[in-house]
Write a structure and sequence with these properties.
195 residues, alpha/beta, GMP Synthetase, Chain A, domain 3, Histidine-containing Protein, Chain: A, 2 domains, four-stranded mixed β-sheet, 9 strands, 19% strand
């Protein structure tokens, strides 16, 4: 008798990788299931398609060694995909676009990712606090559907991304964000949904 098997060594070659990919796609699908207000103007079929597109891209970013699935956000509306957040290099930003473009159902990719260097832990904590304050202010605002808006802050620069119903909502979200203590600059890359 040989040594007892431990861990997942009993799986056939490639099975662990397939399980990992399946898990990542499932996890991403759960994270990106559309909230009601965020996709209120889409049919249930369109919402499902966009959820699958976003989840598949997110899983691809997580699985690609050259991209960060945690720093790059993915939104999809009628096959138009917006990538947002912060990347460490132009190469990461470019690779993220390629990952998104390779997904079935993607009609267009809007890459709003900003290239920014890593920051200290203290700055990351400050940025998290600023992001929380911005999200709270947007939730309290009338005529701003905050669930449609991704908010990320990096070294005091707060990015607003996602698909919103009108130019007025985009402008109002930007004005609210600019008034929050700790926001050095607003990068308002919100996309007004086509009608």
């Amino acid at each position: 008798m040989g040594a007892p098997r431990t861990g997942m060594s009993y799986l056939p070659d490639g099975a662990l990788a397939r399980m990992k990919n399946h898990f990542l796609v499932t996890l991403a699908a759960l994270v990106f299931l559309p909230a009601g207000p965020a996709h209120a103007q889409q049919s249930s079929t369109d919402r499902a398609d966009d959820s699958v597109i976003a989840a598949t891209i997110k899983a691809g970013l997580l699985d690609n060694r050259n991209t960060s699935g945690t720093r790059i956000n993915v939104d999809s509306y009628q096959g138009v995909v917006q990538l947002s957040g912060f990347a460490r290099s132009e190469g990461e930003k470019t690779t993220a676009t390629k990952v998104a473009e390779s997904v079935t159902g993607v009609k267009q990719v809007v890459n709003s990712v900003v290239v920014a260097p890593a920051t200290s832990m203290g700055t990351k904590l400050d940025d998290s606090l600023v992001t929380g304050k911005v999200k709270a202010a947007l939730m309290d605002a009338a005529d701003v559907k905050s669930l449609q808006i991704n908010v990320e802050t990096h070294d005091g620069v707060t990015q607003l991304a996602g698909f919103v119903a009108s130019e007025a909502m985009k402008d109002k979200a930007g004005r609210i964000t600019a008034g929050i203590d700790g926001v050095k600059r607003v990068d308002n890359v919100l996309v007004v949904r086509p009608r």
